[in-house]
Amino acid sequence: MAASKEAASQDKVLETSKEEAMQAYQNLLEAKTHFRKAAEAAGMDLKSEATDQLLKGKDKAEALGNEASRYMNEKPLATLGVAFIAGFVFSQLFSRK
What is the tally of structural domains in the chain? Predict the structure, then answer.
């Protein structure tokens, strides 16, 4: 009779362990789902921030281009001189000797 009580006790412990393992597995799957959703949301935030930075950079580049164009229209001889000097410097740097 003592052996049957011990066997029943071991079966109960085994059954409880199985239930706890299944509960832990379910919690792990739920955590995986939450983590995936959080990662996707963070990715969307990063994508949005990157797009905003790209648009800001594009606006700055456009503003600088407009300013350079205005300067070239206002002072064409100075622009020609700067272009000539820059070309000369580049030719000297990259010429083979």
Answer: 1
